[in-house]
Target: Cobalt transport protein CbiQ
Amino acid sequence: MLRLIMALSRTSRIAFIHPVEKVFLSILPIIIIGFTNRSIPIIINIIIFILLHMLCKNNKNVVIKFAFEIAVFAAISSITFVLDYGLSYCGVVILKSLSAGLCLSFFALTTPIDDVLNIMAKNKWLKDICDIAKTMERFLVVINDEYSILYNSIKSRGGFDNFKLKITNTGKMAGLLFVNTMHRWRNIKDGIDSRGYRGYMPYLVKDFNFSYLRMGSICIYIFSLAMIIYIKV
Model:
Protein backbone atom coordinates (compact mmCIF):
# COMPACT_ATOMS: atom_id res chain seq x y z
CA MET A 1 0.00 0.00 0.00
CA LEU A 2 2.81 2.41 0.90
CA ARG A 3 4.65 1.79 -2.36
CA LEU A 4 1.41 2.19 -4.33
CA ILE A 5 0.62 5.55 -2.74
CA MET A 6 4.16 6.80 -3.36
CA ALA A 7 3.97 5.71 -7.01
CA LEU A 8 0.53 7.27 -7.55
CA SER A 9 1.62 10.57 -6.00
CA ARG A 10 4.52 10.84 -8.48
CA THR A 11 2.27 10.15 -11.49
CA SER A 12 -0.60 12.39 -10.37
CA ARG A 13 -2.00 14.89 -12.85
CA ILE A 14 -1.27 17.73 -10.41
CA ALA A 15 2.06 16.53 -9.02
CA PHE A 16 3.73 19.58 -10.63
CA ILE A 17 1.65 22.04 -8.57
CA HIS A 18 3.43 23.70 -5.67
CA PRO A 19 3.12 21.63 -2.45
CA VAL A 20 2.19 24.73 -0.42
CA GLU A 21 -1.05 25.07 -2.40
CA LYS A 22 -1.98 21.46 -1.71
CA VAL A 23 -1.05 21.77 1.97
CA PHE A 24 -3.40 24.76 2.35
CA LEU A 25 -6.17 22.97 0.45
CA SER A 26 -5.88 19.63 2.28
CA ILE A 27 -4.83 20.45 5.84
CA LEU A 28 -6.63 23.70 6.71
CA PRO A 29 -10.17 22.29 6.18
CA ILE A 30 -9.39 19.53 8.69
CA ILE A 31 -8.35 22.14 11.27
CA ILE A 32 -11.34 24.41 10.62
CA ILE A 33 -13.90 21.59 10.68
CA GLY A 34 -12.52 20.54 14.05
CA PHE A 35 -14.22 23.62 15.54
CA THR A 36 -17.77 22.65 14.55
CA ASN A 37 -20.24 20.02 15.68
CA ARG A 38 -22.67 20.61 12.81
CA SER A 39 -22.89 18.32 9.82
CA ILE A 40 -23.54 20.85 7.02
CA PRO A 41 -19.97 22.28 6.74
CA ILE A 42 -18.54 18.78 6.96
CA ILE A 43 -20.80 17.45 4.20
CA ILE A 44 -19.89 20.44 2.00
CA ASN A 45 -16.19 19.66 2.45
CA ILE A 46 -16.78 15.98 1.71
CA ILE A 47 -18.59 16.84 -1.54
CA ILE A 48 -15.83 19.28 -2.57
CA PHE A 49 -13.07 16.72 -2.06
CA ILE A 50 -15.00 13.97 -3.81
CA LEU A 51 -15.23 16.30 -6.81
CA LEU A 52 -11.52 17.10 -6.54
CA HIS A 53 -10.63 13.40 -6.47
CA MET A 54 -12.76 12.86 -9.57
CA LEU A 55 -11.25 15.90 -11.31
CA CYS A 56 -7.69 14.68 -10.62
CA LYS A 57 -8.66 11.10 -11.52
CA ASN A 58 -7.13 9.71 -8.34
CA ASN A 59 -7.28 5.96 -7.82
CA LYS A 60 -10.79 5.49 -6.43
CA ASN A 61 -9.99 2.17 -4.77
CA VAL A 62 -7.19 3.72 -2.73
CA VAL A 63 -9.34 6.75 -1.85
CA ILE A 64 -12.27 4.58 -0.71
CA LYS A 65 -10.00 2.29 1.29
CA PHE A 66 -8.20 5.23 2.91
CA ALA A 67 -11.36 7.15 3.86
CA PHE A 68 -13.42 4.08 4.78
CA GLU A 69 -10.82 2.64 7.16
CA ILE A 70 -10.47 5.97 8.98
CA ALA A 71 -14.27 6.28 9.26
CA VAL A 72 -14.62 2.71 10.55
CA PHE A 73 -11.91 3.29 13.14
CA ALA A 74 -13.69 6.48 14.26
CA ALA A 75 -17.03 4.66 14.42
CA ILE A 76 -15.59 1.91 16.63
CA SER A 77 -13.78 4.43 18.82
CA SER A 78 -16.90 6.59 19.28
CA ILE A 79 -19.12 3.76 20.55
CA THR A 80 -18.41 4.83 24.13
CA PHE A 81 -19.69 8.36 23.31
CA VAL A 82 -23.21 7.13 22.51
CA LEU A 83 -24.40 7.03 26.12
CA ASP A 84 -22.85 10.39 27.05
CA TYR A 85 -23.39 12.48 23.90
CA GLY A 86 -25.94 10.60 21.79
CA LEU A 87 -25.98 9.19 18.29
CA SER A 88 -25.97 12.60 16.58
CA TYR A 89 -22.60 13.49 18.11
CA CYS A 90 -21.14 10.13 17.05
CA GLY A 91 -22.46 10.74 13.54
CA VAL A 92 -20.61 14.07 13.42
CA VAL A 93 -17.41 12.37 14.59
CA ILE A 94 -17.71 9.81 11.78
CA LEU A 95 -18.39 12.54 9.22
CA LYS A 96 -15.33 14.46 10.44
CA SER A 97 -13.21 11.33 10.09
CA LEU A 98 -14.54 10.68 6.59
CA SER A 99 -13.82 14.29 5.63
CA ALA A 100 -10.29 14.07 7.06
CA GLY A 101 -9.71 10.80 5.21
CA LEU A 102 -10.69 12.40 1.90
CA CYS A 103 -8.48 15.43 2.59
CA LEU A 104 -5.44 13.38 3.58
CA SER A 105 -5.88 10.89 0.74
CA PHE A 106 -6.03 13.81 -1.72
CA PHE A 107 -2.78 15.20 -0.35
CA ALA A 108 -1.07 11.78 -0.24
CA LEU A 109 -2.10 10.86 -3.80
CA THR A 110 -1.13 14.18 -5.38
CA THR A 111 1.98 15.27 -3.46
CA PRO A 112 5.20 13.21 -3.44
CA ILE A 113 6.85 13.32 -0.02
CA ASP A 114 10.13 14.32 -1.71
CA ASP A 115 8.50 17.55 -2.91
CA VAL A 116 7.42 18.44 0.62
CA LEU A 117 10.88 17.68 2.02
CA ASN A 118 12.45 19.66 -0.83
CA ILE A 119 10.50 22.76 0.17
CA MET A 120 11.05 22.32 3.91
CA ALA A 121 14.79 21.64 3.52
CA LYS A 122 15.30 25.18 2.22
CA ASN A 123 14.87 26.32 5.81
CA LYS A 124 18.09 25.66 7.72
CA TRP A 125 16.12 25.00 10.93
CA LEU A 126 14.11 22.23 9.26
CA LYS A 127 16.83 20.64 7.15
CA ASP A 128 17.93 18.13 9.81
CA ILE A 129 14.30 17.08 10.34
CA CYS A 130 13.91 16.58 6.58
CA ASP A 131 17.06 14.43 6.45
CA ILE A 132 15.68 12.22 9.22
CA ALA A 133 12.30 12.01 7.46
CA LYS A 134 13.96 11.07 4.18
CA THR A 135 15.88 8.26 5.87
CA MET A 136 12.72 7.10 7.67
CA GLU A 137 10.86 6.99 4.34
CA ARG A 138 13.20 4.29 3.08
CA PHE A 139 13.04 2.56 6.46
CA LEU A 140 9.22 2.41 6.29
CA VAL A 141 9.41 0.91 2.80
CA VAL A 142 11.73 -1.78 4.15
CA ILE A 143 9.33 -2.52 7.02
CA ASN A 144 6.45 -2.75 4.55
CA ASP A 145 8.37 -5.17 2.33
CA GLU A 146 9.35 -7.37 5.28
CA TYR A 147 5.76 -7.42 6.52
CA SER A 148 4.43 -8.48 3.11
CA ILE A 149 6.97 -11.30 2.84
CA LEU A 150 6.30 -12.61 6.35
CA TYR A 151 2.50 -12.30 6.08
CA ASN A 152 2.30 -14.09 2.73
CA SER A 153 4.65 -16.84 3.94
CA ILE A 154 2.60 -17.52 7.06
CA LYS A 155 -0.73 -17.27 5.24
CA SER A 156 0.36 -19.69 2.49
CA ARG A 157 1.04 -22.29 5.21
CA GLY A 158 -2.36 -21.84 6.85
CA GLY A 159 -0.99 -19.82 9.73
CA PHE A 160 -4.14 -17.70 10.09
CA ASP A 161 -6.78 -20.41 9.70
CA ASN A 162 -8.18 -20.14 13.24
CA PHE A 163 -8.18 -17.71 16.14
CA LYS A 164 -5.41 -19.45 18.10
CA LEU A 165 -3.09 -19.57 15.11
CA LYS A 166 -3.80 -15.91 14.35
CA ILE A 167 -2.76 -14.85 17.86
CA THR A 168 0.32 -17.08 17.95
CA ASN A 169 1.62 -16.35 14.47
CA THR A 170 0.90 -12.62 14.69
CA GLY A 171 3.17 -12.45 17.73
CA LYS A 172 5.87 -14.44 15.96
CA MET A 173 5.52 -12.27 12.86
CA ALA A 174 5.92 -9.09 14.94
CA GLY A 175 9.11 -10.45 16.52
CA LEU A 176 10.59 -11.57 13.20
CA LEU A 177 9.62 -8.26 11.61
CA PHE A 178 11.56 -6.34 14.26
CA VAL A 179 14.66 -8.59 13.99
CA ASN A 180 14.69 -8.65 10.18
CA THR A 181 14.17 -4.89 9.98
CA MET A 182 17.17 -4.30 12.24
CA HIS A 183 19.28 -6.50 9.96
CA ARG A 184 18.04 -4.65 6.89
CA TRP A 185 18.86 -1.30 8.50
CA ARG A 186 22.53 -2.28 8.54
CA ASN A 187 22.32 -2.88 4.79
CA ILE A 188 20.67 0.50 4.28
CA LYS A 189 23.35 2.24 6.33
CA ASP A 190 26.15 0.48 4.44
CA GLY A 191 24.52 1.50 1.17
CA ILE A 192 24.24 5.13 2.28
CA ASP A 193 27.85 5.22 3.48
CA SER A 194 29.13 3.59 0.28
CA ARG A 195 27.52 6.41 -1.72
CA GLY A 196 29.53 9.04 0.15
CA TYR A 197 26.90 10.18 2.67
CA ARG A 198 28.38 13.18 4.51
CA GLY A 199 25.74 13.76 7.12
CA TYR A 200 23.16 15.55 4.99
CA MET A 201 20.76 14.74 2.17
CA PRO A 202 21.15 16.66 -1.11
CA TYR A 203 17.91 17.86 -2.70
CA LEU A 204 17.67 18.53 -6.43
CA VAL A 205 16.26 21.86 -7.51
CA LYS A 206 12.72 21.40 -8.80
CA ASP A 207 10.53 24.06 -10.34
CA PHE A 208 6.93 23.90 -9.16
CA ASN A 209 3.96 25.58 -10.80
CA PHE A 210 2.62 28.19 -8.39
CA SER A 211 -0.54 30.08 -9.35
CA TYR A 212 -1.83 33.09 -7.46
CA LEU A 213 -5.25 32.41 -8.99
CA ARG A 214 -5.35 28.87 -7.60
CA MET A 215 -4.02 30.05 -4.25
CA GLY A 216 -6.64 32.80 -4.13
CA SER A 217 -9.38 30.30 -4.92
CA ILE A 218 -8.15 28.02 -2.13
CA CYS A 219 -8.12 30.93 0.33
CA ILE A 220 -11.66 31.90 -0.72
CA TYR A 221 -12.85 28.34 -0.10
CA ILE A 222 -11.15 28.17 3.29
CA PHE A 223 -12.59 31.55 4.27
CA SER A 224 -16.09 30.55 3.05
CA LEU A 225 -15.92 27.31 5.04
CA ALA A 226 -14.88 29.24 8.15
CA MET A 227 -17.75 31.72 7.64
CA ILE A 228 -20.29 28.91 7.27
CA ILE A 229 -19.10 27.53 10.60
CA TYR A 230 -18.98 30.95 12.27
CA ILE A 231 -22.42 32.18 11.20
CA LYS A 232 -23.93 28.71 11.78
CA VAL A 233 -25.60 28.30 8.41
About this structure: Residues 163-194 form the longest helix (32 residues). Residues 122-194 form one domain. The chain has ten helices and no strands. The CA atoms of residues 35 and 106 lie 21 Å apart.
